[in-house]
Amino acid sequence: MKTLKLILLSLPFIFISCTTDQSIFDIPKTGIEQEGSTYEKDGYCIYDGDILLKKDGSRTYSNILSNPTIWPEGIVYYNFNNCSVSHKENIRRALHQLMAVTSIKFVEEVDMVSGPLITFNFIENGDCNSHLGMHPVHQNINLTSGCFGEDKVLHEVFHALGVHHEHNRSDRDDYIEMFWENIKTNYFFAFTKQNEAVDPAYGSYDYKSIMHYNSHAFTKTGNPVFKKRNGELISTNTQLTKSDINGINYLYRNEVENRSTITIDVESPSEFVFVELAPFIVNFTWGGMGTEGYTSKVIINTTVYNNITNFSFSPSDFGVYTIRFEVYLNGKLISYNHRDVEYIDKS
């Protein structure tokens, strides 16, 4: 198996009745009247606080506890919609953090493509939510203003990878005590248990998992909605834990073994801001050169150069230029490297 090497130098909710498959959940019998288990928004049923289901409530994208629909070869393609430069950078940092410690690989697509793809979508007055597992065509991770911290982005990305909330595990009652009387009644389903047993390979219950709610999530009284069995509160963790990392690697272990990737080395200047219109030289080498099925592109803003490994770019004016190197296998983008180079007039 070849390994990849990248050297980088440079509304208010509208509560309706959504039909949800309840056979996989342990529905609490609290004696408290619920206003609704899910709510509809933008053509979807929202389950568990931040998980997108189809409008009829069916659960087609699965989760880590019940045969998740996972991304082939552990490669996830993504792009952006309505995201600012800072939004994009925060998302990229989160994804690179995950790539540094897991086998998952994220590939940014400049243009919309057919097949599975995540669009990070900024919604001004919306919610933070994601599909559960891979959708066969296209799916959104919706983010509003308070969702661009790396931990919030990673939480939703974990859903898209096929991971459910930690506090919904079937064994959670061994570790936390629920206080249903303190939960907003329309959010009861955010705390229902999975019926499936937990695969021991995913590790023991993790209070600090990035997928665990804090003790005051969706409280209507200001009091905790759950505590540890010893009475301690659970706070929001902003860092990936060992079990978060191990769980993803275990979930995708077979997919990664099937991955076909190549080697890319990129040499480019250490400074990417130039004070004059001087050439920007980049050299690319990659292990697939001359191999059947492999092709490459260099893209400078919108200009495309096919099947070259080095170039010298001379800008025609001051400004920011996006320079991107892409490698394809049988027409499918499998790896890339890109630079934003800014030329500044300081005369």
Automatic annotation (TrEMBL):
The answer on whether this UniProt entry bears the keyword Hydrolase reads: yes
**Cofactor(s) essential for the protein:** Zn(2+)
Q: Where is the active site?
A: E156
- Please give the InterPro entries that the UniProt record associates with this protein: MetalloPept_cat_dom_sf, Peptidase_M12A, Peptidase_Metallo
The Peptidase M12A domain extends over: 62-255
Q: Keywords in UniProt for this one? A: Hydrolase, Metal-binding, Metalloprotease, Plasmid, Protease, Zinc
The UniProt record lists the keyword Aminoacyl-tRNA synthetase: no
SMART domains according to UniProt: ZnMc (SM00235)
The annotation note on the cofactor reads:
Binds 1 zinc ion per subunit.
Task: Tell me the residue numbers annotated for binding Zn(2+).
Answer: H155, H159, H165
Protein name per UniProt = Peptidase M12A domain-containing protein
- Upper taxonomic lineage: Bacteria, Pseudomonadati, Bacteroidota, Cytophagia, Cytophagales
